[in-house]
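Deliverable D5.2: sample structural annotation.
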Amino acid sequence: MSKATPNPIVKNIEIINARVANHQDLQRISVNQDGVIEQILPMSQGSNQVVTEVLDVDGDWISLGGVDLQINGGLGLAFPDLTAKNAPMLDEISQFLWDTGVDGYLPTIVTTSIENIQRSLSIIANFSQKSGAKILGVHVEGPFLNYGRRGAHPAEYLLPLTLDEVKRVLGEYAHIVKVITIAPELDPTDKVIPYLRSLGITVSLGHSEATAEQARKAFNLGATMVTHAFNAMPPLHHREPGLLGAAITHPNVMCGLIADGQHVSPIMLKILLRATKDLFLVSDALAPLGLPDGVYPWDNRQIKIINGTARLGDGTLTGTTLPLFTGVQNLVKWGICDIETAIFLATDAPRKAINLPTIAPNQPANLLRWHWDEVAKELSWTRMGK
């Protein structure tokens, strides 16, 4: 897996009167000739940077690009279906994601055969990326999931959650796995999570029937994430808060969230955001991302896409084909949260979830400018630079 990243596109400039998440008041952002952020200071403080251009963004928001920690494919290619022949499409998908505002992503491999998982891991591990959004690692979602909460994951490929099975699935490619989703109640030994953490893999709980007590134990063992909150897990209940209740009340856990209006009701999104700020947006986008609505193959089945929502023939919700930033715009449009929070949930928050730097000095200036149109009541964004 290449460590190459797109060249910074903002250089030798001072951006003034900018709003930046987690910074009070208007800021000035200085970017040096190497395309690196030199400083972020309140407008009330002077700047000693020498630049060739000053850009007044007049109160618009400035952020890094998005990071998508759960995306299943794009432009017709599902990541579990990677082969040597179609591997070049990774560059096309990466460029497409870059054009939708995403700086980095985790190709997500859902439940399939061990052969398919390892083939996809091998191709990603050896892929020399040329451009576009950077592949940050891989998210393995399954096959260690609870049968009763498997959703659209094929039952025939589910496996017991044991050390031996985990080692068998990861093989020699554990080094590129950044996140793995598991159902913690399937491991009575409590050995799997500490083992995964010893490999530097972030453990996310999902597709699970875990009680609050089981989830709390998993978090104390080292799990730090929840996969698509509310979906594929017991609902919040006043007597048994379940996995999600345990996550919301734990200080070191962040929850992924799909804001397409189908996976989770906007009312429940608002409740969750009132309950915790430890959230990040994901697209959970499927292979037809970037393609029109229609019927598409999905492993050995078919999915139907209507208005960006994907379902199996029996109506089972499988994902979306909406870009990550649609979730940002939805949160604002629905009045779920303020603009700053919505932007943060797709840019800085997912970086925080996998321990990447957020917007700050010494970071490459791959910057986005977000503008709120008060007349149209619309939030839009553009990449900065030429």
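Annotation notes: The mean pLDDT is 94. The radius of gyration is 21 Å.
The annotation will be released with the project's public dataset once the embargo ends.
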